[in-house]
Each structure stands twice: as structure tokens, then as C-alpha cells.
Amino acid sequence: MRKILTVVGARPQFIKAAAVSRVLRAIPAVREVLVHTGQHYDDNMSRVFFEELEIPEPDYHLGIGGGTHGQNTGRMLEAIERVLLGERPDWVLVYGDTDSTLAGALAAAKLHIPVAHVEAGLRSFNRRMPEEINRVLTDHISDLLFGPTETAVQNLLREGISPDRIHLVGDVMYDAALYYGEKAEKHSQILRRLGLVPKGYILATVHRAENTDDPSRLRVILEALAQVHREVPVVIPVHPRTRKRVEALGLLSLLEQLLAVEPVGYLDMVMLEKNAQLIATDSGGVQKEAFFYEVPCITLREETEWVELVELGWNKLCSPERGVEGIVAMIRHSLGTRGRPARLYGEGKAAIRVRNRLLDL
Ligand code: UD1
Ligand code: UDP
């Protein structure tokens, strides 16, 4: 019997872990212990994903969220260590680049429990991003590094990580998109609920700290979207971080000019993405999903970790420093454009590869 302890905590991790958990749990000789740090805790940021993606109830819910980076990471580290000392798993499995990822990896590494990192090797080369710190540190204390792309693998090799620890597996989010995409078509009523016409609206998401915590950038983004909304409806499921900043900065009147909704579940999000005319986002996951569904994407950042999307023309970087008119012009210009077709993220078998490598199958 192999015991694998998975640490998740934030929205994108539920989606990534759902894809891997499903194939892990299909093997009778595996016991997966699921730890939810509590980093994301609202029902529409957490519970909805467990229900829709049929993720089993966490074995441990640590209830740690809402603090600063130091508070969250420190409290998670202490609580995860306690769980690890009790469970003594064969592997600790972590995903992506959040504070939960780093806390899980660090707690395990200090106890000499092997760590496997899914979505290893991504780099923005911008150390001001909390995620970049989490990625670099996690990769350097992981025993198995599962890279989604060739670029990610090259980044790891350049940092001197031993090639025998690195495995190019593809992207587990693509696995999830393939598996749940059909389910979304069957179950989601979101277009009808919001009165949207397929290919008749723009989908936007904004939650990155560099955009929400800088009043001028947040204002520019919202003003640009509000201007575009006068021509094409802009739907924006609002991340709780963004909602709080908008309220604190007195920008609610701008948000109210858009079709602003609470965060939506994954199946509704997939439908919103598939049917959008264009996506404007600062999310990592949403950039890729735009490509999966062949929707042009504008990334409201200076750089991206998913550089291949930019190279193929599916994604255009648009720094909020360009100002309101700059963003509006780029959105208008990109409506109706297409990138070059390519297979960038595997064949939907990333989760199976992760499992097989973990279990030496
Ligand atoms: C985190 C990740 C980010 C990821 C994002 C996915 C880090 C450093 N950042 O950012 O990489 O892209 O999740 O969505 O780990 N909040 C709520 N309810 C919730 C969750 C958050 O109100 O359910 C509010 C709280 O005020 C919290 C703030 O949002 O303090 C920020 O949450 P946090 O998890 O620290 O960072 P995210 O911005 O969500
Ligand atoms: N997502 C969702 N509902 C929303 C916004 C996003 O289900 O209201 C999904 C989205 O489809 C993607 C993932 O959440 O699969 C991306 O998470 P997020 O943007 O929070 O984080 P990032 O990928 O930037 O780390």
C-alpha cells in the first residue's frame, strides 16, 4: 500500500488535484490522504469545486486562510507538519505556486518525506510576485518535478536541478478541461442565467496581487473594461480579493458598470470561457483555458509563465501601464483574431503520467 498525501488550498489547486486524484484513487494499492489548508474558504472558492469535480472530502481541514503571506505560510507549515508526523506518507504531492504549495513542500522536506511537485518549472522571472518565490523554493526542495511544458523543463535544468528528477508530463489542467468540458455543456445554465449570447460577450478575471493591490492599475483595468462594455458586454466573476480592494478603494461604481458576478463554479466557468468572444485575464489557468477553447486572450500583465501561448499568437500581453486607451485598443484589435494551432500541453494524459511515475508503474 502506498500512501500519498496531497496538499491543496486554493481554487486552481482543487481543479488540478481533481484530475490527479481521480486516477490515483483508481489504483486499489493507493491511499490518498487529502489535506485542505483552508487558504480559500468561501463556498464559491472551495466547496463548489469539491462537489462539481467529485473530489472526496478532505481528511484534514486546517482552516488557515485570510492572513498575510507570512502568517498563512507559517501557520500552514506548523499544522501540516503535525499531520505528516501522524500520517507518515510515502509521498507529499503539491500543486502550482501558492502559499499552500510552499508550506506543504517545506514541511515534508524537513521531515525527509519525498515531495512531488505538479506544475514545476514555471517562471515569470519576476521575483516581486509571491508565486515566483513559492515556485522557485518548491522546485528546489522537490524530489520529483512534473513539468507541464518543454520550457518549464528547460527552466529547471538551467537552475541546476538534476535531470533524473524532472519529468515532462503535460498539463493536468488540460486533462481536467477534457474530462469536465462535456459535463459543463450538459449541466451549466450560466449563459441563460446571465442572458448571454454565445460569442457575444467578453469574459474578464482579475485577481493578481500586482493588479489588485495597486490602486492605479486596478482603476485602469476596470475603466478599460467599462469602456469596452459599452460596445460588447463584459462578464467578470469577481475574486474575493478583488471585491475587497474595489470596495476599499471606492471603485465599486466602475465594477457596477460591468456584468459583475460572484466567483462561479468550474462548470459555469468552462461554459463562459468556451462561448466568449475574447478573454481578458491575469489568471494563469484562464490563459490556458482560453487556448484550449480557441478563444483569443489578452493577459493583463507584463509577463507570463505560459510563454508558448504568446509565441503562437493565442495570447497577447497587455500591461495595465499602457493605460485605459491602450487596453481598450488592444481588446478591440484582438477580437476575432486567432493564433496558430499547436499541441502544447500533452494529450490529456498528464495525470496518468504523474501517477505512474509516483508509483513506479
Ligand atoms: C492565491 C494565490 C495565487 C492564485 C490565487 C488563485 C498565493 C500567494 N496566491 O491568491 O497564486 O492565483 O490564489 O485564486 O498563494 N479571500 C476571501 N475568501 C476566499 C479566499 C480569499 O475572502 O475564499 C480573500 C481574503 O481577504 C484573503 C485574500 O482574498 O486575504 C487573498 O487570498 P489569498 O489566498 O492570500 O491570495 P489570492 O489572491 O487568492
Ligand atoms: N475559475 C472558476 N471560477 C471563477 C474563476 C476561475 O472556476 O470564477 C477557474 C478557472 O476556470 C481555472 C482556475 O479557476 O480553472 C483558475 O484559477 P485562478 O484564476 O483563481 O488562479 P490562477 O490560475 O491564476 O492561479
Topology:
Layout: E1 2-8, H1 11-24, E2 30-36, H2 47-52, E3 60-61, H3 69-87, E4 91-95, H4 99-110, E5 115-118, H5 130-140, E6 144-147, H6 150-158, E7 166-168, H7 172-187, H8 190-194, E8 202-205, H9 209-212, H10 215-229, E9 234-237, H11 240-248, H12 252-255, E10 259-261, H13 266-274, E11 278-281, H14 284-292, E12 297-299, H15 307-311, E13 315-317, H16 323-334, H17 350-358
Parallel strand pairs: 1-2, 1-4, 2-3, 4-5, 5-6, 6-7, 8-9, 8-11, 9-10, 11-12, 12-13
Helix pairs in contact: 1-7, 1-17, 3-4, 4-5, 7-13, 10-16
Bound molecules: uridine-diphosphate-N-acetylglucosamine and uridine-5'-diphosphate.
Uridine-diphosphate-N-acetylglucosamine (UD1) is lined by residues 10-12, 39-42, 45, 65-66, 97-99, 130-131, 207, 240-241, 244.
In short:
47% of the residues lie in helices and 15% in strands. It is an alpha/beta fold and 361 residues long.
Description:
It is a single chain. Helix 4 packs parallel to helix 5. The strands form two sheets. Strands 3-2-1-4-5-6-7 form a seven-stranded parallel beta sheet, with helices on both faces. Helix 2 links the parallel strand 2 and strand 3. With 361 residues, the protein is an alpha/beta fold. The structure holds uridine-diphosphate-N-acetylglucosamine and uridine-5'-diphosphate. The site of uridine-diphosphate-N-acetylglucosamine (UD1) has 19 residues, from helix 1, helix 5 and helix 11.
The percent of residues in helical segments reads 40-55%
Small-molecule binders here are:
uridine-diphosphate-N-acetylglucosamine, uridine-5'-diphosphate
Q: What is the arithmetic mean of pLDDT?
A: 97
Global morphology: globular
Strand order of the largest sheet: 3-2-1-4-5-6-7
The major pleated sheet works out as: 7 strands, parallel
Poorly predicted segments: none
Q: Rg to the nearest angstrom?
A: 20 Å
What letter string, H or E per element, gives the SSE order? EHEHEHEHEHEHEHHEHHEHHEHEHEHEHH
Please give the number of β-strands.
13
Broad structural category: alpha/beta
Strand fraction: 5-15%
Distance between the amino and carboxyl termini: 13 Å
Helix tally?
A: 17
